[in-house]
Amino acid sequence: MYLFWLRVAVVLYAASTVAVFPAVLYRVERWRQICVHLASLGFFFHFVSAVEMLYLAHRWLPVGVREVESMLGLAVAAAFFIVWWLYDAISLGIFALPATFFLTFVPALGPDRYTFPSDGVRMSWLVAHIAALFAAYAALGFSMLASLLYLLQERRLKSIPKAGEDSRMLPLDWLPPLDTLERIAHSTLEFGFPCMTVGLVIGAVLVQETPLGAAYFRDPKVIASFISWGVYVFLLLVRRSAGLRGRKAAWLSGAVVVVMLFVWASNLVSHVHRFGAP
């Protein structure tokens, strides 16, 4: 039963992870309450699962990578609730809750290596994994393009010549207004984030059928992907909490795209994601 309770906790952690973003980024009180309640239930079932697992094994310490990951996820969730209770800092949940979900998701698949029921099912998951990450990269690229056009449009508007003077700027009258470009850059960022999250989760499922096991998460490409995901979260949080707009927001969007380029470059040293590898 401990595996059943852990799977229930993972579902609740996933729901709380979804709820924490509108609760923090948009400061919606209703989502804040939903997030805390879901995460509390997830922590409860996670604790029950951990106690039952150790009781059945007749030991007090976890053994094996998956048990350690589960206990570490429980520790992260506990730390989040302590900080939230003492300081009412739910904003930290935007990092803690997704981390807890990622740590407990793989152990919830079972103590043994997960296998897909057929090659067709595995191929469907692989297509979904690639499509989600490509959608995230495309959204980031479009956000970067909108940010660059914002900077060009801003410069053009500031350098409008007086009567009788010649402008050195290219004719950019066809560009949308600054506010439109700003909204495009931000909305594409928000669209790309869930795509990247789904892609990483599906990748964690796919690797369970390979002999790599936990070594998969030590691959440079995988490490860089999770770092880029953290940078992505940080960018969304800064844009919303600090109210950044205009030039600063455009430069921040560009910084995330630069991180994505490093992720793609890591394919050169990756053992499991190298393009063209057999």
In round numbers, the mean pLDDT is 79
Count of beta strands: 0
Determine the structural class based on helices, strands and strand pairing: mainly alpha
Percent helix, as a range, is over 70%
- Work out the helix count: 8
Low-confidence stretches: none
Largest sheet: none
| Strand content range | under 5%
N-end to C-end Cα span: 40 Å
Radius of gyration from CA coordinates: 22 Å
**Regarding quaternary structure, how should these chains be classified?**
single chain
SSE arrangement:
Layout: H1 2-25, H2 29-57, H3 65-87, H4 93-108, H5 119-158, H6 178-206, H7 220-241, H8 247-265
Helix pairs in contact: 1-2, 1-4, 2-3, 3-4, 5-6, 5-8, 6-7, 7-8
Write up what this structure looks like:
The protein has helices at 2-25, 29-57, 65-87, 93-108, 119-158, 178-206, 220-241, 247-265. The chain is mostly helical and 278 residues long. The chain starts with a helix and ends in a 13-residue tail after the last helix.
Protein traits:
single chain; 278 residues; mainly alpha; globular
Concise overview:
This protein is mainly alpha-helical.
